[in-house]
Design brief:
6 copies of one chain form a homohexamer. With about 250 residues, chain A is of the alpha/beta class. Helix content of chain A is about 45%, strand content about 15%. In chain A, strand 1, helix 1 and strand 2 form a beta-alpha-beta unit. The first copy, chain A, is globular. Strand 10 of chain C pairs antiparallel with strand 3 of chain D.
Chain lengths: ~250, ~250, ~250, ~250, ~250, ~250
């Protein structure tokens, strides 16, 4: 099977690291197509960039999803998740959604750890939108940028370790590392942290593979059923066609 | 003061009816600038169109907000609301948000009435995202299209009346008519319905005027503080500049 | 239009400061009638005083509301709010209710700051009764009395600043100063606090003006509809008449 | 021990029926002092009457509680409950509160049945204020007045039976009859209804007796600790003294 | 009346201390039959031991409940509570359930204090399963074992005092001491702690006595109605008979 | 890899049908060991039988888990789920838990359909205990027994179809068929039902395979960490050893 690994921001390095994590996680026989956004934010670090990236997500699925069996949204705010589910006939999995659901299989309550305090409430809203607030111990952030992961690796490693341990203090029995660069640190930090450190990309690849294997039908009624015949303008012909096609 | 009345879909007729409602509601001295989306959905009737429209909202504020004192999102899913709050220094009010908050000032529990069953769960999610689920009696939908409001007015009027009365049965002590075309029916239906029938555009204009008058400062910390210096590509120069400017 | 500004406790100084805030906030053409309770608590600082003050609120509206277009409850526990909405045909707005709804227009999550630790749970219950608990970051209190605001202004200013900053630490992206004396400090503290400091009286005046302007009908069914013909004894003739009159 | 059975409305007949239920429920050695309100509503049938009755409750406890070991609020909206707990040193139990807690000991989810549709949301708010919303199946009302219980007993009996059975359909595994007159019907209806029909007065008497027996200390900190030294005016000397006394 | 006091673990010393607390709490005329588990965990200190103990609870009620008027589960995780309610025709009360409901009669919000950090989330889940999460201030644990209560009494006393005071800091206006050995410390600690320290066994005895006195019928429909005629194997004949008997 | 498929009740036919579903769902290379309870309920149809079955689950894992890579609880109340997670070092997945999490990947809100009205509240509690109540549209039941699935297949098929369609009416955008026998009907009913009909066993097998593949470490702190060294009596030597072993 072939999974579309979709990074809507413009940073190829993020796509690369996500692809690497996905490759390590994928089962034999799973092919991965990793794509990077063609317009929009360089990196998503704000509510407005996230809103903009939703369009980017739609354009990427319009271009690439037809050749794939499922989509993994490699963007930690699960941008455009339900829009894609509505628009496509194949499974779509968000990386943070998958991380949270995997955490729910391992621990009664879990924490989420990300870059930058200003996104803490945004991740809390995301967990709430997935209906999992009562399973959330806390959201924490390290006050470094994703970029510093590469320029000051020791410092970032130390901060992530400390923040993860503090989440454990606050009742987290598993921790989702919400950020591609952070996930790469999981193997190095796991020995120091007494609860599982989860990587959303790994979780999402596994869930996408499973959904493809199980082949549940898409809802034909309700709020994610195909609409068909919708008219949009000023977007790529591929996206226009995707909105217009009838189920 | 000058309010930007922003309709991100492409249907000028919707902008016109919204402007008419806003003009009737605005106080003397309030100027209204009503703008229509330049790309995106003809009408928003699905999750995917709503996701796409968020970009349209951002483009419209990038082009027009600088000359205005506040923004009213004349789109009943409050598309891009918090993104705009983050990006702009002026007040931003969503029409459904304003309708819900006004309902909260009039009635202990309220209902929401819209076009099309497939959007019922989406409005419920919207109410939940505003944190007002415990005040919600129910969301109901009439199974007609906005277009039929004009082509079959008597039928639509009858269906809206019936649905509003059913919401009252379900405990609604006020009803928000979520849909521009529907709101225009409020005066005709009000005599038949024993609870207030609210129009989100009217509510939003009042709240925007008040916020401009009160002049609260914008948060300088947290998840809607200005980011400044964000880099985005492939969008209009105006939007690029809006992301790039420093507070 | 004429707003009734209603302080059910017996302290004229509180009425004065509230009136001053309201005057500064009111639009041109808004007349204000500020009244002080005729019996009941000197200052509301406990659950029992608040329960008693509800009667005082009803007596004040019975005496003064007929000549007014709307009522602002200038009591930070929104005492008797829904009772007044049921009893009167004009809009009624609570100052904390209005502060919370305004905060909801500015910030995803907000804090409430008041005098005295013993009222912290009472404000939490109030926010919950308004259905806004999921938007609440925290309630904090300064351990000084309202009176000390005047006798030890520097100390109180310092404590309020510190408490507001701690609320920001706890995730508040706006702070409602719940207490008339405290609100007067907002302009002096705002430069030091990175999120909006809201005054409930200002918010309530704006919302009351808007509701009068919009003129929504009062519900004719449900739990705030006029009852009519209710018999009460041992209260003022004005209140007795208010209960007895038929809609 | 001596229990104060407190009916804040002015209808002696209600006090009588409540006393009768309490006498049947009380253990040997429990003395009952039943008192009726001296001012306020004839019967509580609205939000405003309930707000007014809170003052009546305070006056009654000021006059009578000193001679008693506990207070039972024989008013089905638990009017003034936490105010009394704060003001007094003896246990205070609300009749609906006690009915809900007893229901919680018998059934996973329960229903509440009352007179008059307009109070349905008010009872829902009461259950929510007690923190028991997740245990609530539904609130239902019969559309008759308490008075009709006596003038048209067969009709009321039939309506209550039907409403109770409908609550069972909606998932209630116990039903609280919230209304003194209704409770008297419980023995006659119980054979027809497959779940327990609870009377709040009976429940409250049992819980009050138990709290007296267990003699837990009153909180000395927090929101129901004694305040002491509060100044109120325009009320009875007894109530003034109760506010003023120091713990 | 005769109450079955049921300790499903194998430690007779726990049964003894529980019986002592129950005897001090019981009213004259209440007879107590205290029984200890015949198989299963020595002490319940984990989720798995709790799951196992449910069977032990069922065996004990099968053997002893027929001769009794009510059951008190003297196990602080309320193990098998609803199973017993379904299986038996007499009232069943859990000690933590009773402690929480009693706390609800005394304080707006309360805390729970137990032995061992690993059970903190388990108690939180228990409070949530009783539907009382909104009344919970926090759960705290002392990091000592129940055994140390006897071997190092001064140290444990000091730790419990400190933890109780910290719960008060976190908003608890009453504290339930969840653990038999801990409850015995209540009288010694109460003078140092400004809120009521509750013992679940005392609370449960009082509620069981009251339920026996009130004699509500058992639900004949719903999820705790008698099933009758259920077939189980490999358990004691008494338990087999209990499952098989028809109501 | 080898999965332990664990049916704690005594009905081999249920184990057989579950194994059949699991075999169809398993990936190549997944071996299945299906085991049936050695004591306890013939079929779980009540709260008490479910409580008893928890012991049976523990005995089965004590006997069989050592040779396996993960456990699937093939019991639709997820009996003993967290106890097993605590006790074992390998992944454990409940069939209803897995069904709910899979539904969460396909639909914003979903319904649960089971046999017998008396279990409806029990499933609701289960969904709540998984923290997914806000995603639940409703729980419905067909009033037939699992046995009738085989004796009256056409009737049961018709009732399940009708109940599933009613869940769709109530807002379910996916339906979990909670009951092994029911799941076998999914393929035949799917064409008539416009939303996915999920089988918990299929979902659980996929999630267990994925967790084995991803090899997250077990928490070493918190409420599901290994306890080690626990003493239990009167159970099988295997279970005794499982409780006693140190991590």
């Amino acid at each position: 099977m072939k999974l579309l690994l979709l990074n809507p921001n413009l940073t190829q390095a993020v796509t690369d690291v996500v692809l690497q994590a996905a490759q390590a996680a994928a089962r034999p026989g799973t092919e991965l197509l990793a794509v990077t956004g063609g317009f929009g934010p360089q990196v998503i670090g704000s509510r407005a960039e996230n809103a903009l990236a939703a369009h980017g997500v739609l354009e990427l699925v319009a271009q690439h999803a037809a050749a794939c069996d499922a989509v993994v949204l490699a963007v930690s705010l699960d941008t455009g998740l339900w829009a894609c589910r509505e628009l496509l006939d194949i499974p779509v999995v968000g990386m943070t959604e998958a991380g949270l659901l995997t955490a729910a299989l391992l621990a009664p309550r879990f924490g989420v750890l990300t870059y930058g305090r200003r996104l803490v409430p945004v991740y809390r809203e995301l967990v709430e939108s997935h209906g999992l607030l009562s399973r959330l111990a806390a959201v924490a952030a390290v006050d470094v940028t994703p970029q510093q992961t590469f320029s000051e690796p020791q410092r970032v490693l130390a901060e992530v370790r400390q923040a993860a341990l503090q989440l454990v203090e606050q009742g987290a029995e598993a921790v989702l590392l919400a950020g591609a660069a952070m996930a790469a640190m999981a193997p190095r930090l796991q020995p120091d942290v007494p609860v599982p450190l989860l990587d959303g990309v790994v979780c999402a690849v596994g869930m996408a593979e499973t959904l493809v294997h199980q082949a549940w039908p898409k809802p034909r009624s309700g709020s994610v059923a195909a609409t068909g015949g919708r008219e949009v303008h000023g977007v790529s012909p591929a996206l226009q066609a995707l909105f217009a096609r009838r189920p």
